[in-house]
Design goal:
The chain has helices at residues 2-17, 27-39, 58-75, 81-97, 101-105, 108-121, 124-141, 145-163, 169-186, 191-205, 223-238, 243-260, 266-286, 295-306, 315-334, 354-367, 371-377, 379-384, 395-399, 404-430, and strands at 46-48, 55-57, 340-344, 347-351. Helix 10 runs antiparallel to helix 11 and helix 11 (223-238) runs parallel beside helix 13. The strands form two sheets. It has a two-stranded antiparallel ribbon. The radius of gyration is 23 Å and the shape is globular. With 433 residues, it is mainly alpha-helical. InterPro entries: ARM-like (IPR011989), ARM-type_fold (IPR016024), IFRD (IPR039777), Interferon-rel_develop_reg_C (IPR006921), Interferon-rel_develop_reg_N (IPR007701). Belongs to the IFRD family.
């Protein structure tokens, strides 16, 4: 609350002294600061300001945030690249920290037009930020008609930047993540858009696949991060594919991904390992007896990475790699997965498989610190993770929390039910594919 008061004081000073005060901070920077304070305020019904007794409820904070966002949307059309970038960064923060469906519904076409303009004409940093805002806009609008409209409008330009070797690497990486997220949210029932997005992502990361002689190609700095982002988004979209498509993917990609475990880039190796585990889980969902044909060699490679002690690698990299590849190895050998609990409010979800982990990690990459807020209040995420409608709690309900086991069983049952429903949709799409 004290931070909020300080922000208001700064804004009033900026108003008295002109566009810039003595500190040289712009209005856009101040708006960004205010948004950060709003996002960190309590989610309770109201807050009491110190010394005044004035009640600032959640609705007031929401309205003030929306007023700031309106100005940011106007600034997206400014001629100054610096102003547009500041506006995009503020929208990024606002969209990730609050659920704004009603606010965005009537402004979605304006925002989409502005984002398209930034993607087409902006510099690398502006393109990268605009792509992230595209993903957040889809998450805010959900998987309905509104989200589909926005995705169909923005998919071509996201794909174009992604496959453009002359575009900046940060912009291409951001577009890879945005294309995967937007397609997952808004085009899960559209076979054509799904296949096109999968194809574009695939065309990027196959650049790390082995050459004809079996050796891995040398790539310039920054490319492995792009390939990792494209591979992870591709893996996310694979969870939407019908069984016939999964079988084709397994036959074509598993041997090549196995070779990519020898990559010199630790983060790319980890992305490859997690993708291998996810593909094996998809294969086992289709056929319980599924087993990769060269499983013994794969397990040997995973064991080497799980016990890697090369001193020329950073200590943190070695630790992270060993931890991930131990999990991958245990899953390939025994179907054993280390469950992870994500707590938010009085609720929790359980990450009990590689598919579920990839879905959660994808939303976490886009929403960052706002992911728990969206798990509580965003209907899209609550539907995906089987949480039901957002909870409205009073003191008596908060006091009667259900046990951990009951929550786990409920969440697992809901996720399995949703998976079965999605498998039916996969079967319906199989002929189209």
């Amino acid at each position: 609350v004290l931070q909020l008061q300080l922000s208001k004081t700064a804004l009033s000073c900026a108003g008295r002294n002109g566009v810039r005060g003595e500190s040289g901070v712009s209005d856009d920077d101040l708006a960004l600061e205010v948004l950060s304070h709003y996002s960190s305020t309590s989610e309770s019904a109201s807050v009491i300001e110190e010394g005044t007794g004035e009640v600032v409820d959640e609705q007031t904070a929401q309205e003030e945030t929306e007023d700031k966002l309106k100005q940011c949307i106007d600034n997206l059309m400014d001629k100054s690249a610096k102003t547009r970038l500041a506006a995009l960064e503020s929208l990024h923060l606002g969209f990730s920290s609050r659920v704004l469906y009603e606010f965005l519904l009537e402004r979605r076409f304006t925002i989409s037009d502005c984002l398209e303009r930034s993607l087409k004409k902006g510099g690398g940093e502006e393109q990268a930020t605009a792509a992230t805002v595209c993903a957040l806009l889809c998450v805010q609008l959900g998987g309905g008609v509104e989200g589909e409209e926005g995705f169909k409008m923005l998919r071509p330009i996201l794909s174009s930047i992604l496959i453009d070797s002359c575009a900046s690497l940060p912009a291409r990486q951001s577009c890879a993540r945005a294309l995967g997220m937007c397609c997952y949210v808004s085009a899960s029932d559209d076979a054509e858009d799904l296949l096109k997005s999968i194809g574009h992502l695939e065309s990027v990361f196959v650049g790390s696949y082995p050459l004809g002689d079996g050796t891995l190609p040398s790539v310039k700095a920054g490319i492995p991060a792009l390939h990792s982002a494209a591979l992870q988004s591709w893996a996310l979209l694979c969870t939407l594919c019908p069984a016939s498509r999964i079988n084709t993917i397994l036959n074509h990609h598993m041997p090549r991904l196995h070779t990519c475990l020898e990559s010199s880039e630790v983060n790319f190796r980890i992305a490859v390992g997690e993708t291998i585990a996810l593909l094996c889980e998809l294969g086992r969902d289709i056929d319980q007896e599924f087993e990769y044909e060269d499983c013994d060699a794969l397990c040997d490679s995973l064991k080497n990475l799980a016990t890697d002690g090369n001193k020329h690698r950073a200590k943190n990299d070695r630790r992270k790699q060993r931890s991930i590849f131990r999990e991958v190895l245990h899953y390939i050998e025994n179907e054993d997965f280390t469950e992870e609990k994500i707590q938010f409010g009085i609720e929790a979800i359980y990450i009990d498989g590689w598919i579920r982990r990839r879905i959660y990690d994808a939303f976490k990459e886009v929403l960052e610190s706002g992911v728990r807020h969206h798990l509580q209040f965003n209907p899209l995420l609550r539907d995906i993770f089987g949480l039901g409608p957002p909870l409205i709690l009073d003191a008596s309900v908060k006091a009667s929390r259900i046990s951990r086991t009951e929550r786990h069983l409920f969440n697992s049952a809901a996720f399995k039910a949703r998976t079965k429903l999605r498998n039916k949709v996969r079967d319906k799409r199989a002929d189209v594919m």
